[in-house]
Structure formats: C-alpha cells, structure tokens
Amino acid sequence: MLLFEEDFKYISSGEIVYLATRGEDFNYCAILDDYELIRVLGEGGFGEVKLGRHRENKSEVAIKFMDIGQELSSASAIAGIYKEADALKALSHKHIVKLYHGFIDGKRFVMIMEAAHGG
C-alpha cells in the first residue's frame, strides 16, 4: 500500500519519526514511553519535574508534568498551549533550556526538556 504525506500525521524527534494514519488520533504518549522516569527533581503548585533517561540513547532529560485541568476549557486555550510549545521548540541558544516535546496527556501538559544539571 502506498502512503502519501496527506495520509498520515507525523512528528519527528531527531532520527525517530512517530506516525499516525489518517482518521487516527496521534498518540503523543508514545513519545513519553521512550523515556524511563528516574526520580523527582522538584515539585510545585502546578505539578512536578522528573529526571528521565531515553531508553535507547541514554540521554537525560527533564520531564515536567503540569496540571492544566482548568486550562482545557476551550479549543482556543489548547491551541494556545501548542502554539507556545512550538515557539519554545524553535528556540536554540546555549543559555535557554531546549524544549524537545510538549503535549497534552489527559489533564496534564507534559514537556520533555533538556536537563540542566547544577541548579
């Protein structure tokens, strides 16, 4: 069967490409499955940050889980969250923590970011 770009949704993460065929929702949680959660780095009023390790390349990341149940009241609010995540992913500077992925999992916003060791 031939597939064309308009037949599927995809998200690329370096050398890994995640696919969802047309008519099927993209399962962003598949990205989270690529990481082993090691320990809690910090907790706050909106959620927590955990140290994660990529299962294949062993790189360490910070994974932030934010409770956004109140924020999911409208489609425009959800679109705003994704727009901000896309803007952050486009940033690349040695003094800015890199955002690799940002997605909604249930009533949580999950951000997979560069781990900034040392405080």
What does this structure look like?
This protein is of the alpha+beta class. The protein has a domain at 32-114: Phosphorylase Kinase, domain 1 (2-Layer Sandwich). Helices cover 17% and strands 43% of the residues. It contains two helices and seven strands. The chain has helices at residues 29-32, 75-90, and strands at residues 8-13, 16-21, 35-43, 47-54, 60-67, 99-105, 108-114. The strands form two sheets. It has a five-stranded antiparallel β-sheet. It is globular. The model is unreliable at 1-5 (pLDDT under 50).
Oligomer: single chain
Q: Stretches where pLDDT falls below 50 for ≥5 residues?
A: 1-5
- The residue fraction in helices comes out at 10-25%
Label the CATH architecture of the domain at 32-114: 2-Layer Sandwich
Largest sheet: 5 strands, antiparallel
Strand content: 35-45%
Q: SSE order in H/E notation?
A: EEHEEEHEE
Outline: globular
At the third CATH level, what is the topology name of the domain at 32-114? Phosphorylase Kinase, domain 1
Write down the overall mean pLDDT. Answer: 77
C-alpha Rg (nearest Å) = 15 Å
Strand order of the largest sheet: 3-4-5-7-6
Count of extended strands:
7
List the helices and strands and how they pair.
Elements: E1 8-13, E2 16-21, H1 29-32, E3 35-43, E4 47-54, E5 60-67, H2 75-90, E6 99-105, E7 108-114
Antiparallel strand pairs: 1-2, 3-4, 4-5, 5-7, 6-7
Give a short overview:
The protein is of the alpha+beta class and 119 residues long. Helix content is 17%, strand content 43%. The protein has two helices and seven strands; from the N terminus they run ββαβββαββ.
